[in-house]
Amino acid sequence: MSEASLLKQALRAVMSGQARASADMHRPAWHLAPPVGLLNDPNGFIQHDGRYHLFYQWNPLACAHGAKFWGHWSSADLVHWRHEPVALVPTEAYESHGCYSGSAVSDHGTLTLVYTGNVKYPDGTRTAFQCLARENERGEFDKSGPVLPLPDGYSGHVRDPKVWQHNGLWYMVLGAQDINLHGKVLLLRSADLTRWEVVGEIAGSGLNGLGDFGYMWECPDLFSLGETDVLICCPQGLAAQSERYLNTFQAGYFTGRLDHQTGAFPHGEFTELDLGFEFYAPQTTLSDDGRRLLFGWMGIPDGDEFYQPTVQQGWIHTMTCPRELTLHDGKIYQQPARELQQLRGEEQRWQGMADEAPHWNVSQAELLIQTSTPFSAELGGVLTLQWDGERLALSRRNLRSGELEHRYWRGELRELRLLCDHSSVEIFINQGAAVMSSRYFPTQPAHIRLMGQESMALCHWPLSDCVIE
Ligand code: FRU
């Protein structure tokens, strides 16, 4: 379809669906969500000329995966956002089945997108092109087409370029599947963003001491935190363990030290970035003030997603809140971006036995729970959190099967910070040593009920809306 027809279809979808989507009781008030249709990965996250830009995988035409567009928001402060012109529409032969995920760089001052043109053939095979598009004076993006076809030795699954500059050269990591169906991350190098040379595989199933570690790795991101290099990636095909890898697909990281020359990246173990039910395809950027910021997708492409009730209201999925990353003792800590404190209303404090705690409204709220002794909490009657002194368990009923499902964290609990937004909660454990992000769908505005005979200290803030213009 031509760009004009696709945009006409998208406009109609927004015009006919937006009122209904915004009136949905499960609609977030301060998280980013699609006006209508399906949102997945954060793309092109960057601070450029002082403004943050966040693009997103978007199907405006249906609550389904398909030929993705790139939607685009921008913000001066990560709290007040504005819609920008739709950045990419899948119109060309080299992106016939979607403008898939990618990143943004500032190339001689021009905001430049590097993304995957996804192509499927009628016989079921596929290919992928890595493509460029540059911002013009109207804030739209002019495509310059593919800069890299499928490298030799890989299946059609090669995608999600994340690009950065190092010592005057451009580097790219790509998620890939090799012809033996092992998931890999490729490193490439370029002087000008248009001619790329493959440096090698820096990590993957069967590499660097990893055994079988999945058939495809998506959405890699590579950056340093101090002296340590961090590789984020999303392996597909890890077997579930009793308390790990419980989602259909994982998002996690390795730490090590990358040799940009040779592509050698000796690294440690894989650690999941988030232990909740919904978290995938995170992407980071470096802010002007030196913080490593992350947005994730609060969703998983597992098919069960379509049992979420918002589908009936014509929209599905949200981003996580923006988070700041730091490294302590070799582990990534995530904290809500400090800018989010602007959303806080009047603070209320309480101390006493859990059973007697106020049943605060948490539909749009931040709640700090300080305790190390056992307690449980119920949110909106549909999500429970239980701390037994050794293990924290987050539980809910599966929307498809109705079965109880659980996610876990183990450690020494000191505090939990819950960021709640109508149908989501992000639980930051011990100042970000671990996070659990999950969607949940209460039938009334959610209140929290705390239970237990031990004492705890609480702090509650209502959160205001995050304006999107
Ligand atoms: C991850 C992903 C990416 C791909 C995009 C398509 O969720 O599958 O690998 O580029 O979504 O929307």
What do you see in this structure?
It is a single chain. The chain has 469 residues and is mainly beta. It folds into 2 domains: 3-336, Tachylectin-2, Chain A, CATH 2.115.10.20; 344-468, Exo-inulinase, domain 1 (Jelly Rolls, Sandwich), CATH 2.60.120.560. It contains 1 helix and 32 strands. The strands form 7 sheets. Strands 22-32-23-28-29-30 form a 6-stranded antiparallel sheet, with no helix packed on it. It has a 5-stranded mixed sheet with strand order 4-3-2-1-19, covered by helices on one side. Beta-D-fructofuranose is lined by residues 40-41, 57, 68, 100-101, 116, 159-160, 218-219, 280-281, 301.
The backbone outline, from C-alpha atoms, is: globular
| Gap between N and C termini | 29 Å
Quickly give the CATH architecture of the largest domain.
5 Propeller
Strand content: over 45%
Q: How would you classify the quaternary structure?
A: single chain
The largest beta-sheet arranges its strands as 22-32-23-28-29-30
The percentage helix is under 10%
Count of domains: 2
- Radius of gyration equals 22 Å
CATH top level of the largest domain is: Mainly Beta
Describe the structure concisely.
With 469 residues, the protein is mainly β. It is 4% helix and 49% strand.
What is the fold's blueprint, element by element?
Elements lengths: L2 H21 L13 E12 L2 E9 L9 E7 L5 E3 L15 E9 L2 E11 L5 E10 L5 E8 L5 E13 L2 E10 L4 E8 L6 E8 L11 E10 L2 E9 L15 E5 L14 E2 L7 E7 L5 E6 L17 E2 L6 E6 L2 E6 L11 E6 L10 E7 L4 E5 L3 E5 L3 E7 L6 E7 L4 E7 L2 E6 L4 E6 L8 E4 L3 E8 L7
Parallel strand pairs: 1-19
Antiparallel strand pairs: 1-2, 2-3, 3-4, 5-6, 6-7, 7-8, 9-10, 10-11, 11-12, 13-14, 14-15, 15-16, 17-18, 18-20, 20-21, 22-32, 23-28, 23-32, 24-25, 24-31, 25-26, 26-27, 28-29, 29-30
Bound molecules: beta-D-fructofuranose (FRU).
Beta-D-fructofuranose binds next to strand 1, strand 5, strand 9, strand 13 and strand 17.
